């Protein structure tokens, strides 16, 4: 990753880029929404396509000179169609939030009703949080996970749908470690004649590879991010049946966005091509195997996990049982000092502030990209526990940091 030109023009930014590269190389990226893209995706995203205006869609643009932009976007669409099997894919959303925005804009009017999962139970800001436009423009009610099991309370969701009569039900989550039963949510949507948006932002890669069931063909709309478990660079996508294709395309552009970020779409095309290779399926299986190992290791040490384990790439530990005086944010800080980067996270039945909540969330997508297997992940689980159990000990944090440095060297990121 040559930044010689940046260094000539702007040493301050060049230093920050070099620092960030070293930071990624020398820390364990366990924020469940993060991953590491290939150098091929980096090159595509850092390409001359950043110069090109291509408002419109392939074959019908508002600007001249779009022949290569068309080629790239068509490739991204073709590959996405192959990966997820939807009738129609729009690859232009700048992010997962903007993919969701396009769906709401396509089918809702201001004041319409959204039924979604509570943020502290694993939902997302763009599903109706009061601080997000969705919480301000639409009338939002929320369903929850079952407090005893940590699984989505599907019966409660159904009952909430029947009493609230929403226009759209949103499924798909940010901090939910279990398989989502799309058909049960669809049944609730059918019962009240609501649309169903399945937001697979976190599990886009797992769904593409078939290690998590797909909502495509069940939900009316499927949205995703392209930088979490699929390594195609920062961005979003929307998928739907042919019947909604025009409405979605218009809602993305001109409804909510101007010119597409063609360099990011090139990154998507390249990342999707990589995800169509057989190695990607093996990668996603390893991601899930590693998450299971991480879950078992933490549980063996005595940590409580929401839902008692995981089916996907993430675990959510509720520290209140084992470490009642340790908020998740403090655990996050101690772990970061040992170069293990994850986040404090709210848990179902949260009793603390969202700024320093009761849980920690950890994902295995990034480690698995570096080549970590179950054995290496189990060691990471041991290291996480040592820090959590000794947040006040500079010696422990130092020792864990030393071991993390060795692991990072053993599993290098970029050449
Ligand atoms: C990450 C995430 C998104 C997308 O977030 P962006 O940062 O806007 O790309 C959307 N929905 C869910 C459930 C997510 O976890």
TrEMBL record:
<keyword id="KW-0963">Cytoplasm</keyword>
<feature type="binding site">
    <location>
        <begin position="123"/>
        <end position="125"/>
    </location>
    <ligand>
        <name>(6S)-5,6,7,8-tetrahydrofolate</name>
    </ligand>
</feature>
<dbReference type="InterPro" id="IPR039429">
    <property type="entry name" value="SHMT-like_dom"/>
</dbReference>
<comment type="pathway">
    <text>One-carbon metabolism; tetrahydrofolate interconversion.</text>
</comment>
<dbReference type="InterPro" id="IPR015422">
    <property type="entry name" value="PyrdxlP-dep_Trfase_small"/>
</dbReference>
<feature type="binding site">
    <location>
        <position position="119"/>
    </location>
    <ligand>
        <name>(6S)-5,6,7,8-tetrahydrofolate</name>
    </ligand>
</feature>
<dbReference type="InterPro" id="IPR015421">
    <property type="entry name" value="PyrdxlP-dep_Trfase_major"/>
</dbReference>
<keyword id="KW-0808">Transferase</keyword>
<feature type="binding site">
    <location>
        <position position="242"/>
    </location>
    <ligand>
        <name>(6S)-5,6,7,8-tetrahydrofolate</name>
    </ligand>
</feature>
<protein>
    <recommendedName>
        <fullName>Serine hydroxymethyltransferase</fullName>
        <ecNumber>2.1.2.1</ecNumber>
    </recommendedName>
</protein>
<feature type="binding site">
    <location>
        <begin position="353"/>
        <end position="355"/>
    </location>
    <ligand>
        <name>(6S)-5,6,7,8-tetrahydrofolate</name>
    </ligand>
</feature>
<dbReference type="InterPro" id="IPR049943">
    <property type="entry name" value="Ser_HO-MeTrfase-like"/>
</dbReference>
<keyword id="KW-0663">Pyridoxal phosphate</keyword>
<feature type="modified residue" description="N6-(pyridoxal phosphate)lysine">
    <location>
        <position position="228"/>
    </location>
</feature>
<dbReference type="GO" id="GO:0019264">
    <property type="term" value="P:glycine biosynthetic process from serine"/>
</dbReference>
<comment type="subunit">
    <text>Homodimer.</text>
</comment>
<dbReference type="InterPro" id="IPR001085">
    <property type="entry name" value="Ser_HO-MeTrfase"/>
</dbReference>
<feature type="domain" description="Serine hydroxymethyltransferase-like">
    <location>
        <begin position="7"/>
        <end position="384"/>
    </location>
</feature>
<dbReference type="GO" id="GO:0004372">
    <property type="term" value="F:glycine hydroxymethyltransferase activity"/>
</dbReference>
<dbReference type="InterPro" id="IPR015424">
    <property type="entry name" value="PyrdxlP-dep_Trfase"/>
</dbReference>
<comment type="pathway">
    <text>Amino-acid biosynthesis; glycine biosynthesis; glycine from L-serine: step 1/1.</text>
</comment>
<dbReference type="GO" id="GO:0005737">
    <property type="term" value="C:cytoplasm"/>
</dbReference>
<dbReference type="GO" id="GO:0035999">
    <property type="term" value="P:tetrahydrofolate interconversion"/>
</dbReference>
<dbReference type="GO" id="GO:0030170">
    <property type="term" value="F:pyridoxal phosphate binding"/>
</dbReference>
<dbReference type="Pfam" id="PF00464">
    <property type="entry name" value="SHMT"/>
</dbReference>
<comment type="function">
    <text>Catalyzes the reversible interconversion of serine and glycine with tetrahydrofolate (THF) serving as the one-carbon carrier. Also exhibits THF-independent aldolase activity toward beta-hydroxyamino acids, producing glycine and aldehydes, via a retro-aldol mechanism.</text>
</comment>
<comment type="similarity">
    <text>Belongs to the SHMT family.</text>
</comment>
<keyword id="KW-0554">One-carbon metabolism</keyword>
<dbReference type="InterPro" id="IPR019798">
    <property type="entry name" value="Ser_HO-MeTrfase_PLP_BS"/>
</dbReference>
<feature type="site" description="Plays an important role in substrate specificity">
    <location>
        <position position="227"/>
    </location>
</feature>
<keyword id="KW-0028">Amino-acid biosynthesis</keyword>
């Amino acid at each position: 990753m040559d930044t010689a030109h940046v260094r000539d023009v702007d040493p301050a930014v060049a230093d920050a880029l070099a620092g960030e590269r070293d930071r990624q190389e020398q820390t364990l990226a366990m924020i469940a929404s993060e991953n590491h893209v290939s150098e091929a995706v980096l090159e595509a995203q850092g390409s001359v396509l950043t110069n090109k205006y291509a408002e419109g869609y392939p074959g019908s643009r508002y600007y001249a000179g779009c022949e290569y932009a068309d080629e790239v976007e068509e490739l991204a669409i073709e590959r996405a169609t192959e990966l997820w099997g939807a009738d129609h894919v729009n690859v232009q959303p700048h992010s997962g939030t903007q993919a969701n925005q396009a769906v709401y804009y396509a089918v809702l009017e201001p004041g319409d009703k959204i039924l979604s999962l509570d943020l502290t139970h694993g939902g997302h800001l763009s599903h109706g949080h009061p601080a997000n436009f969705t919480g301000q423009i639409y009338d939002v009610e929320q369903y929850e996970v079952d407090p005893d099991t940590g699984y989505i309370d599907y019966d409660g969701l159904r009952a909430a749908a029947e009493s609230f009569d929403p226009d759209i039900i949103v499924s798909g989550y940010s901090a939910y470690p279990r398989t989502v039963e799309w058909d049960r949510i669809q049944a609730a949507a059918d019962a009240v004649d609501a649309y169903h948006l399945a937001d697979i932002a976190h599990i886009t890669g797992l769904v593409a590879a078939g290690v998590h069931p797909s909502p495509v063909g069940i939900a009316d709309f499927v949205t995703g991010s392209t930088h979490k478990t699929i390594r195609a660079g920062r961005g979003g996508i929307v998928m739907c049946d042919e019947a909604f294709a025009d409405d979605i395309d218009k809602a993305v552009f001109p409804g909510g966005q101007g010119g597409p970020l063609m360099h990011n779409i090139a990154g998507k095309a390249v990342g999707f091509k990589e995800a169509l290779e057989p190695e990607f399926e093996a990668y996603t299986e390893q991601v899930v195997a590693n998450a299971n190992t991480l879950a078992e290791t933490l549980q063996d040490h005595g940590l409580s996990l929401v839902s008692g384990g995981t089916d996907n790439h993430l675990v959510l530990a509720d520290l209140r049982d084992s470490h009642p005086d340790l908020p998740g944010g403090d655990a996050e800080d101690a772990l970061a000092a040992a170069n293990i980067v994850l986040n404090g996270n709210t848990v179902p039945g949260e009793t603390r502030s969202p700024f320093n909540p009761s849980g920690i969330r950890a994902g295995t997508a990034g480690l698995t990209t570096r080549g970590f297997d179950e054995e290496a992940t189990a060691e990471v689980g041991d290291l996480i526990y040592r820090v959590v159990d000794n947040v006040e000990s500079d010696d422990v944090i130092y020792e864990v940091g030393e071991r993390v440095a060795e692991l990072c060297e053993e599993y290098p990121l970029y050449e």
